[in-house]
From TrEMBL:
Highest rank taxon of the organism: Bacteria
Keyword Zinc (UniProt): no
DUF2207 domain mapped to chain residues: 53-223
Pfam family name, one: DUF2207_C
Region (Disordered): 95-116
TM spans (from-to): 248-271, 424-442, 448-465
Span of the signal peptide: 1-33
Phylogenetic placement of the source organism: Bacteria, Bacillati, Actinomycetota, Actinomycetes, Streptosporangiales
Protein name (database record): DUF2207 domain-containing protein
Listed InterPro entries: DUF2207, YciQ-like_C
Length: 578
């Protein structure tokens, strides 16, 4: 064995052996194969290989002992996994079969995985010895090995029956430098029975006695470099690594994604930037205490629930809680804090007060009816806050929907913010699902999976960006500007000083603005301003809309209100478990 041939034979034996196990040796069942191997056999398998012009022409003469079958199968290894991203392939073409003595002559080839199975069949079942001449052209079996072209090919064997004698002759039309051969499974390093060159060194001659089913006679022949015209053939292997490779298609998709995202940012700037410009220009106009004589009005007469929806474009639970407090301040409800020492728990009662509902906005009317309507549909004069837990969630959804409709009715939004977000989110999720399906399909069949990944990213960005798509009108932005100034006033927690306001007026001002403090999450700071006013007001141990238990006074109001807002938000949003 020459050193050149030995080097060629050093292959990834384990990988090739694993590939060989991927498919059965023939299309027959194991039982059928066992019976065939016991009753049929290949008497001789003589192969002549002619190498030249980049093609190896193979003529294989098979003398087969039949025992009731109409043909046989011969298996070739036509693909090797050389790396994670590349396969070496061997291409068979111009396949044909003939027989001088009535043997099968119909040849078909099917490839699966690393193997190609050639089936030779006839029109009838056969017995006894028949000769079949199998011919094909082979490309990709020659490898440049330094200063030599080396042919490597399992020329004989690959049947599911034993082979008595296998032989091969390699003719390259030029001097052969070295020969070698191996017998056994693909990748075997066991030498064959005999190999040598003819006296002119123009032919390699090989032979092997007794091959078991599935074994091969593999021949090696080295030629001077460039004399065969042959070269190895490679194909890019379809794997996860190759599926997500960067190429012209995937690169273009990524560039398109950047353009799409850039356009999305520009669109958001045009929508959201308009809000920011109007707000920034007019914010200072609202930065003052909205007090005019004895009248105390919020900025532009906007209700707390409206402000909460306007600021973050969400009709949140805290906005509904602020509306409940506002209904109490405006005389529609009385909030009564129960004595924990008596009841054993902290709870409040919301009691209906007789007042015309003509001044209520639609969402406020829905909320008030929802609070004071029992689960059986009857009206009630009072309800404990704890009784709302688990029963109010459906009604809460109706209130929030009405709040979204209200901000559109006010002209602050052209469309309902929740509808705008839903449309963009659904579109983004649909695009993401499409991208996932496309990525999987592309990864399994092509190298363009990165394009599908780009669609997934675009869909996710669309779904995320959709949360910022609701845009205020110019009127809504103006109201927001005044709201920002009003929030700054509440955050300072300052009531007018001096004698300009009597204590009852200061308490009324505090009460009027408290629902807005709930929206802006500054209840504790703003509620602290009532303690001093309560000390100045005779008999001010309660507010006109909030009654505490015995021994309760306004000094405890800040903590009571903080706890009340938390408990209310939890109760009205809690869903009843099934």
């Amino acid at each position: 064995m020459s050193a050149l041939a030995a080097l060629r034979r050093v292959r990834p034996v384990m990988a090739v052996a694993a590939a060989a196990a991927l498919l059965p040796l023939t299309m027959a069942t194991p039982a059928d194969a066992a019976r065939r191997a016991a009753t049929e056999r290949v008497l001789t398998d003589r192969v002549v290989l002619t190498v030249g012009n980049g093609v190896t022409h193979v003529k294989e003469t098979i003398v087969y002992e039949f025992a009731g079958h109409d043909g046989f199968a011969r298996e070739f290894v036509t693909r090797e996994h050389e790396s994670a991203t590349r396969d070496r392939v061997y291409r068979l073409s111009n396949l044909r079969a003939s027989s001088p003595d009535g043997g099968p002559t119909r040849a078909t080839a099917t490839s699966e995985g690393t193997r190609t199975t050639v089936e030779v069949s006839g029109a009838k079942e056969l017995t006894g010895r028949h000769t079949v001449v199998l011919e094909y052209d082979l490309r990709g079996a020659v490898t440049r090995m330094g200063a030599a072209d080396e042919l490597w090919w399992p020329v004989a064997g690959g049947f599911d029956v034993p082979v008595e004698t296998a032989s091969a002759t390699v003719d390259g039309g030029t001097m052969i430098r070295n020969v070698n051969c191996f017998a056994g499974p693909i990748g075997s390093t066991v030498g064959c029975t005999q190999f040598y060159m003819n006296h002119a060194h123009t032919q390699g001659i090989y032979s092997q006695e007794k091959l078991l089913p599935g074994e091969y006679l593999t021949v090696v022949a080295g030629f001077p470099a460039g004399t065969t015209g042959g070269h190895p053939l490679y194909e890019r292997r379809q794997t996860v690594a190759t599926a997500f490779s960067v190429n012209a298609v995937t690169g273009s998709a990524l560039i398109g994604l950047l353009v799409l995202l850039g356009g999305g940012v520009a669109a958001l700037y045009m929508l959201r930037g308009r809000d920011a410009r109007v707000v920034g220009r007019r914010a200072a106009e609202g930065d003052h205490a909205p007090v005019a004589g004895a009248e105390f009005e919020p900025p532009d007469g906007v209700r707390p629930g409206q402000i909460g929806t306007l600021v973050d474009e969400q009709a949140d639970v805290i906005d509904v809680t602020a509306t409940i407090v506002d209904l109490a301040v405006r005389g529609y409800l009385l909030i009564e804090e129960e004595d924990r020492a008596v009841t054993g728990r902290l709870d409040w009662t919301l009691r209906r007060l007789e007042r015309p509902m003509v001044d209520l906005l639609p969402y406020e009317r829905i909320l008030l009816d929802a609070l004071l309507t029992a689960p059986d549909g009857t009206a009630r004069d009072a309800v404990k806050l704890s009784e709302l837990g688990g029963t109010f969630a459906t009604k809460l959804a109706q209130v929030r929907s009405a709040m979204y409709a209200d901000v559109v009715r006010q002209g602050w939004f052209a469309r309902r913010p929740d509808t705008v977000r839903s449309r963009w989110t659904i579109a983004g999720l649909a695009l993401t699902v499409l991208g996932i399906a496309g990525t999987v399909g592309l990864a399994l069949t092509t190298e363009w999976a990165l394009a599908g990944l780009a669609v997934i990213i675009a869909g996710a960005a669309l779904a995320y960006g959709g949360q910022y798509m609701p845009a205020k009108t110019a009127r809504g932005s103006t109201v927001l500007a005044h709201t920002i100034g009003f929030r700054a006033y509440l955050e300072r927690g300052e009531l007018p000083e001096g004698g300009s306001l009597a204590s009852p007026q200061r308490i009324a001002l505090f009460s009027r603005f408290l629902p807005y403090a709930v929206v802006f999450d500054v209840v504790e700071r703003w509620a602290g301003t009532v303690e001093d006013a309560g000390e100045r007001a005779e008999g001010a141990d309660n507010l006109y809309w909030y009654e505490g238990p015995a021994e309760w006074d306004l000094s405890k109001f800040a903590e009571s209100m903080r706890t009340f807002t938390l408990a209310t938000s939890g109760s009205i949003s809690q869903s009843r478990g099934l």
